[in-house]
Amino acid sequence: MAAAAAAAAVGGPQPPQAEMPAPGLALDKAATAAHLKAALSRPDNRAGAEELQALLERVLSAERPLAAAADGEEAAAAGDGGGPGAAEEEALEWCKCLLAGGGGYDEFCAAVRAYDPAALCGLVWTANFVAYRCRTCGISPCMSLCAECFHQGDHTGHDFNMFRSQAGGACDCGDSNVMRESGFCKRHQIKSSSNIPCVPKDLLMMSEFVLPRFIFCLIQYLREGYNEPAADVPSEKDLNKVLQLLEPQISFLEDLTKMGGAMRSVLTQVLTNQQSYKDLTSGLGENAYARKSHEKYLIALKSSGLTYPEDKLVYGIQEPSAGTSTLAVQGFAGATGTLGQLDSSDEEDQDGSQGLGKRKRVKLSSNTKDQSIMDVLKHKSFLEELLFWTIKYEFPQKMVTFLLNMLPDQEYKVAFTKTFVQHYAFIMKTLKKSHESDTMSNRIVHISVQLFSNEELARQVTEECQLLDIMVTVLLYMMESCLIKSELQDEENSLHVVVNCGEALLKNNTYWPLVSDFINILSHQSVAKRFLEDHGLLVTWMNFVSFFQGMNLNKRELNEHVEFESQTYYAAFAAELEACAQPMWGLLSHCKVRETQEYTRNVVRYCLEALQDWFEAINFVDEPAPNQVTFHLPLHRYYAMFLSKAVKCQELDLDSVLPDQEMLMKLMIHPLQIQASLAEIHSNMWVRNGLQIKGQAMTYVQSHFCNSMIDPDIYLLQVCASRLDPDYFISSVFERFKVVDLLTMASQHQNTVLDAEHERSMLEGALTFLVILLSLRLHLGMSDDEILRAEMVAQLCMNDRTHSSLLDLIPENPNPKSGIMPGSYSFESVLSAVADFKAPVFEPGGSMQQGMYTPKAEVWDHEFDPVMVILRTVYRRDVQSAMDRYTAFLKQSGKFPGNPWPPYKKRTPLHPSYKGLMRLLHCKTLHIVLFTLLYKILMDHQNLSEHVLCMVLYLIELGLENSAEEESDEEASVGGPERCHDSWFPGSNLVSNMRHFINYVRVRVPETAPEVKRDSPASTSSDSLGSLQNSGTAQVFSLVAERRKKFQEIINRSSSEANQVVRPKTSNKWSAPGSAPQLTTAILEIKESILSLLIKLHHKLSGKQNSYYPPWLDDIEILIQPDIPKYSHGDGITAVERILLKAALQSRMNKRIIEEICRKVTPPVPPKKITAAEKKTLDKEERRQKARERQQKLLAEFASRQKSFMETAMDVDSPESDIPMEITTAEPQVSEAVYDCVICGQSGPSSEDRPTGLVVLLQASSVLGQCRDNIEPKKLPVTEEEQIYPWDTCAAVHDVRLSLLQRYFKDSSCLLAVSIGWEGGVYVQTCGHTLHIDCHKSYMESLRNDQVLQGFSVDKGEFTCPLCRQFANSVLPCYPGSNVENNLWQRPSNKSIQDLIKEVEELQGRPGAFPSETNLSKEMESVMKDIKNTTQKKYRDYSKTPGSPDNDFLFMYSVARTNLELELIHRGGNLCSGGASTAGKRSCLNQLFHVLALHMRLYSIDSEYNPWRKLTQLLEEMNSHLGNEEQQHEVPILYHDVTSLLLIQILMMPQPLRKDHFTCIVKVLFTLLYTQGLVALSVKCSEEDRSAWKHTGALKKNTCDAEKSYEVLLSFVIRELSKGKLYHEEGMQECATINPIAWSPESTEKYLQDFCLPFLRITSLLQHHLFGEDLPSCQEEEEFSVLSSCLGLLPTFYQTEHPFISASCLDWPVPAFDIISQWCFEINSFTERHAEQGKALLIQESRWKLPHLLQLPENYNTIFQYYHRKTCSVCTKVPKDPAVCLVCGTFVCLKGLCCKQQSYCECVLHSQNCGAGTGIFLLINASVIIIIRGHRFCLWGSVYLDAHGEEDRDLRRGKPLYICKERYKVLEQQWISHTFDHINKRWGPHYNGL
């Protein structure tokens, strides 16, 4: 195509080169290419080179297409053929020709591929691709393999999983930097490059010339297409337009990369060559067009830096000082730069009012290198500019794939990585502006993960390009754009800024690509070392972390409920986890050995500095601001975790990295505030803040967050507690928890900071916190394996867990390289040590259990740790659940019968550095608290609970376990200044303090308190107390005072003695100013010690006086080996005994005092007012008794109410209803069937006026049609070769038969000959409950008005049975009739068979007038309508004339057939088991028969055509109807289906039927059936067999019972049929197909019995239902004889000695030979014309096997690999949600719009075609089975489970899955028994959208 013409066509300016002579243009491309190649091959190739350049310039001129894009857009849109597309294709064609140098392009590709030395796979994939990850082979956690490489490598026994790629990735096979070589696949096991031949020079010579121009052309397109948008938002439409134009070019490049290593290295040369870039991009001054594009490029570049030179800073510029730069200059320069040209909206946010100028903030390490990060980019090669445009265009997928496809080239990889790093800041900037930040994030990570996972590469870039500086700086800038002033602590003067979690940047997680890259590079040791050594970087990083310190501050709402509950808290938690915690874990993983001590010191140092800055910035002194809490303290947590690591792994001395006491006091405040707030939130004190605050409290302890949040907080508090003064610490705790006022001996008190209703739970919270603080050892000396074990035990104790939920719930070390991998060796070994596996069970109710792990008995016995459980529960109910399970275990194992208390568990020893922690247990403050609480509990003060007591005892026990050994027993010197410290206890050791008696206590109480009245002479008694050192003055305040004093002491560093003198007394700050009752001082007489309180408590708990008796008095041994199992489990009494025993063990003195106390009987004297607590402990038995009485009373009342209701209901409905009831009781023989209505509860018969009905579910079913004739179920196809053809199913065979008959015979007669309903037959089932039809109508009405969402649609008549809630959709009326009739008819009559035959004929001849219009008949009609509407029209209409009555006739008797056949299948295909119907009372066939018979009688069959006559009479005029050829004949009687005939005959009779008529019909039909068997047999056997039989039979013909001998009959049949052409047509080929079987008499007999059995089974079932006779059970081989005698076919005198012969059942109504010859004559006359068909119709396959679902492969992967890539047959795309039908194996698209037909999606359509509305589909991508039933669907579950017996819905875990045969059997069972609706509970409408 001429360039000039093209240019003219699009109206662009004509380029000067275009004026060449036309013939030159039309030159053959190939010839030109060959000519040029030759020219270039010469040594002096300058001329050739110039010629090529000229050609390329002409062909690749970038002006045309974009000129078109600019001016000719309308033309292009109008589909102008000469549009830009054509020119571009032309250009591409030229390039291909030139590259190939005149040869064919495909041959060229093949030639280049031969030189591919690549040992790497490098396959690049995009999102949603299925890839594999093998942890055993991976070195980097990001390692991934494509499916092909994975399956070709050997990964047996490895820890691998399949996953769906989120962002895209590339295959690492062959890359030994990322994975171990043992995992490489066969193709990529290192090839030595020597055996790859050298690339011939001329092969790629043209490429080296052509490609630079081509790439430059592409870049020009990109420059030209980009318009710097006005509003700083590139309109995506324009960008996408340009990209669509460039699609072919980029694809061409992508194809080049796939040619292998040789071509990649040429491309690398081209892309990285700086010289050619310079020549092409700058030296084009003469071309106006090129200049224009260059200008556009420069404009685009301008905005690429983080700062703009021309930006005017809004904030007044000060000169930056040398070391740090104030944020106002550099930081905000950064921030403004980051925001691009500030939008108006941003300016409002950032107006100066926030005082950002004042912040002393952000010490950027601002040496010159930072400047380079912020400067405008400069490009030196094509690669750099290509990446630049890739970013500008927001990472188009094609470009990304091209750039990644090049990575296997090592040289390119390095160059590209450096370029990527160089553009890093620009990437961040574009990302922030992007609207599609999600997609863009994924694409960025797609690239970066390939680059940064490689340690060698990461190290190189870190050294050469300052990767770390760039990353940290970029992160810092990114966050600076969304800072707000912190309101923590001092709202007015705070200088601290935090990120605003409501900003899109945090809410949408836009930062994650950058953070994930940072985490990725920190996982490489060499890079992490650089980071930890660089002080400047650490300072910057701590600055970054401090942006998150204190974010998302919660303020407690005190008045009304908060209007708007923001959900931003999750963004805050995610940000702290991803941006702060994960990098921290990454760094920690490199601080594992002694040599790395220096790193820890660095981090700790800068962390403390940042914390110090933070405390100053928020103006923090010593008290936290009330009513606010933030859960985010990343600086505290960094500090804590590095401390822990230092002690645990690096053997650092803890004190060397701890700050001074004052700093420790500040450090503990905020973590402690969080713990107190948790208790407040759980006490519902924050309820006005909405649900989100609970969400925060839960997230804080949730498994993914806890080890980065609560664990470090508690550890930091433990460190502070171990180093601070214990009295100070304990009193701080109680003050923070606001329960100081509660800790008074007085029975009443005032709490100034807490409402009374919250006191109890806050006290519980405080004590629980202390217990956790003192007994948790996670960071205080447990090894990793011990921690794992403790975590696992805690989770298993709460509930049995599946393997995957355990993996999820156990906080793993978040850094993937930490070595504790989920699913790692230690995980599995610990799991098997602590838990037993419970295999997945299946309850008959239908709920499917997964495989679960449950704790072993010894775990409950020794390892159950309530403290750990409390720490790890997200929901409080889980603690209760653990206790319940523990209780159950103790009961079951007989260890303890009652309600146990949480057991006390021994702890692992403390690490020496933390020994100080135990001083908390030995400080007077705690002892005072414990003493007070014990006393209050004993005196039944309010607001104390068993939980409080439990925790108090736990703390005492902890103190005894951890007491200082060197207690100089007994008389330790108690004198000295310690004495005046506090008059409560003499020393600080719990062991000795326990026995210290406290006599009097002075308390402050409200004047109304009972104490005041008792101690009226207060003045005198205070004198008498002089000797008691002013005993415990104002203990209430001593706690707070204690704390203030200590704090003062530390702050002022003054001598401690001075302070003890000036002891602040009651500081009024703590009492609310105008609190109503004035506080007054009272003195209580106590005279107890902790020991005596414990013993009294024992009495109180056991409810007996003197219940405690020291055990060692009887058995001295107990003191020598104290670990007695009897004490390890039990309730409070056991706990008290255990503590007293320990106390006695620790000191002889205690032992003596305990004995003394027990001698003096001291009953506790509580004030005799029954208090709340006492009411509680009222004898439980009494309470239970009362409850029982209440219940009895209620029940009685209910019963009487019901009775009176029934009486009134009866009166209203039918006054005479009592009478029949009396009759029934009086004379049982006239009994009528009585039904109970489950709605109104009345019993009575079903009458014409008020009929009763059975609750039934009608459903269309194609289960019968799925029967095949072989036992083995078909296999699901998993390769292209395997296919399933449905032609051998029962439905197909019957279909063929019917259409064959319809071709040759009269339609109405055909419809009587075979039944339908194999597909889409209506199955009727009932739950067996009955109701009045009028009651049902009002019930439906109430359902219709019910607003509640139901799983069914009432409009379609669906409901659930009011009694058993089983799904139903119709009511089947019960035919009124007494049971008496049955008995009358069943008396055997002695009429001859001939008489009976006549009676039958007469009865059938009577027209069935429809009964008069009664309610009953109306209902019968409506239910018939329901039955018809249940199935689709196509399954009802088989007649050639639509709407003919024959159709309805056929349909009705087929319904009966379907139900009988299905019942037979439910019984397993035969009646050997006998017994009543499997469903017992649940069969509704009897009622169904009445309804059908009533309707069938409306259609009388013309007596001419009634088959009954053909069966029982000889017709004279045989030849008469042969004359008319034209008119179609009736179906010959031998082609009739005998079972269908049976049903027709019976339904044509007036109901109820007489037994002898039934037997008569069966006998007659049996003769026909037997003859059919003989005919079929004669057709099956060979010519010789036939002649032999013909002969033997003829000899016996004249014997007496010839009519009952099969040989005679067979020979007669053969003789008759030989007259026609039936046997003639056989050629030789026919014989070959039918296996020559040697027919012996036995095999013949067996054949005939098998032929007749299906009929006998159905008939017996029918007899059972109609006449209520039981079915006898039998062996399989005697089934025939048993059934035939049961049906009355066997003559009674029949002897059973000689072998049973089926023919003996025959009872011919007319002479056998005559009637047979009459039947055979019909056949002969048909086979005259159609021998083939005539023969086919005779061979009936009657032995169908049970239906089965398809057989599934053992391993799910087999299915997945084949189907998930399989294309849809309709649209040939791979469907998003592929599914496969488990009934027939059809592949369908779930929800696929491509296959939608008339608003029905494919699955719904298929369910209608394949299962008449029931479909069972396996969703390939989810491994789940979905059931479609009519208009509803449900998820059934999965039949594939992993090695741990778990489903993997959506294949999230990607572990190998194996078939669970039991589950599949259950699914099949539900399908066959039609019980999906009853068993599966969660149904929803699908609106045809599946």
Mean pLDDT: 78
| Uncertain runs | 1-26, 64-84, 308-369, 815-822, 966-982, 1013-1037, 1053-1076, 1163-1178, 1208-1230, 1378-1385, 1518-1526, 1627-1636
Percent helix: 40-55%
Structural class comes to alpha+beta
Q: In angstroms, what is the radius of gyration?
A: 46 Å
Number of strands: 28
Number of helices: 79
Largest sheet: 6 strands, antiparallel
* Envelope shape: flat
Distance between the termini: 50 Å
Strand order within the widest beta sheet: 22-21-23-24-25-28
Kindly describe this structure.
- The N terminus is likely disordered.
- The chain has about 1900 residues and is of the alpha+beta class.
- A six-stranded antiparallel β-sheet has the order 22-21-23-24-25-28.
- Helix 10 (about 205-225) packs antiparallel against helix 11.
- It is built from 79 helices and 28 strands.
- About 45% of the residues are buried.
